[in-house]
Specification:
single chain; 104 residues; alpha+beta; Arc Repressor Mutant, subunit A; three-stranded antiparallel β-sheet; 5 helices; elongated; transcription regulation; WH_DNA-bd_sf
Length: 104
């Protein structure tokens, strides 16, 4: 019998993936990520309007996503837009939502 199926030889990889999943494990953050997949880039004000949440709440969720490397910022003058920064997310979200394409 092969006992290596559950071998924890690369705990760093497991920790990184667990942190990624933790960052996604909130309904608002999932909505933000899915929205960014559809819109490609977006500022906090637009997200705040769509989510009907205070700007500070949206910013807190974005900071968690940013800390996990899921989103990044692009500055255009005074405007700061958020974009997806991790290609794995673009593969995961359609699977989670059972969609072929999240851009529709």
């Amino acid at each position: 019998m092969n006992n290596t199926a559950f071998h924890n030889s690369d705990s760093k990889q497991y920790n990184e993936l667990a942190e990624l999943l933790k960052a996604l494990s909130h309904p608002v953050r999932l909505c933000i990520v899915r929205g960014l997949m559809r819109k490609k880039k977006c500022n906090v004000s637009y997200m705040q309007e769509c989510l009907d949440l205070p700007q500070s709440t949206v910013s807190q969720h974005l900071q968690k996503l940013r800390s996990a490397g899921i989103v990044a910022t692009e500055r255009n003058g005074l405007e700061v837009n958020y974009v997806l920064a991790d290609q794995r997310i673009e593969q995961m979200i359609p699977i989670l939502f059972g969609e072929e394409d999240c851009e529709s």
